[in-house]
Design goal:
Elements (H helix, E strand, L loop, with lengths): L2 H17 L3 H12 L2 H24 L1 H7 L1 H24 L18 H13 L2 H14 L6 H26 L2 H19 L1
Helix pairs in contact: 1-7, 1-8, 2-3, 2-6, 2-8, 2-9, 3-6, 3-7, 3-8, 4-5, 5-9
Length: 194
């Protein structure tokens, strides 16, 4: 298989994974629609950093680690599930609250660092990400491929994730989308929380 075919395949598969609804898409859209563009962008960069961590780890040998330390994978799944349940519960609890930040609104992000961390935590505790990256890298990046192809694959993942999440944050932080979100916040948060 040609190097460009390998890299192109990784690009296409990763883009399909990015656009499928999941915790990463939900968090960046909810944060961008309910808060400022800057907070949405910081969340997007946290998600992209998580993709960089997962893809780099997969390149190093995530599959081997999970095969040898099955408890680690199970622990990640449980931790990730607990975090996602927490986010879902908080979205339900705050669904009827106004968008004006209050001290009791646990989903309100007050600093860029909190937004970045929320995005990073969401991606790193998503067990689907670990499975996805270890699976596509195992399938496409054979041991005989040159190192530059493997590094280019990680670069593609990082670029894809950064561009996709930043575009999502930008779009969902537009005035029209934010107004639509304000009108339907109750239902959007309940659906996303579920």
């Amino acid at each position: 298989m040609s190097y460009l075919v390998v890299l192109g395949s990784i690009f296409v598969v990763h883009m399909l994974a990015l656009i499928s609804p999941g915790p990463n898409v939900l968090i960046v859209t909810q944060v961008a629609a309910s808060q400022t563009r800057r907070v949405g962008m910081a969340t997007a960069l946290g998600l992209a950093t998580g993709a960089a961590v997962w893809s780099s780890t997969a390149l190093i040998g995530l599959n081997v680690v999970f095969e040898r330390l099955a408890w680690l994978y199970e622990g990640l799944r449980i931790l990730g599930g607990m975090y996602l349940v927490y986010i879902g519960i908080m979205m339900w609890r705050t669904a009827t609250q106004p968008l004006v930040p209050s001290s009791s609104d646990e989903l309100t992000i007050r600093t860029d660092w909190q937004a970045f961390r929320r995005g990073l935590q969401t991606n790193l505790t998503n067990p689907k990400a670990a499975i996805f990256f270890s699976s596509i890298f195992t399938a496409f990046l054979t041991p005989t491929l040159p190192t530059w192809v493997k590094l280019a694959a990680v670069g593609i993942i990082i670029a894809d994730a950064t561009i996709f999440y930043v575009v999502m944050a930008y779009f969902f932080s537009t005035r029209q989308v934010q107004q639509l979100y304000r009108r339907s916040k109750h239902w959007v948060n309940r659906i996303a929380g579920t």
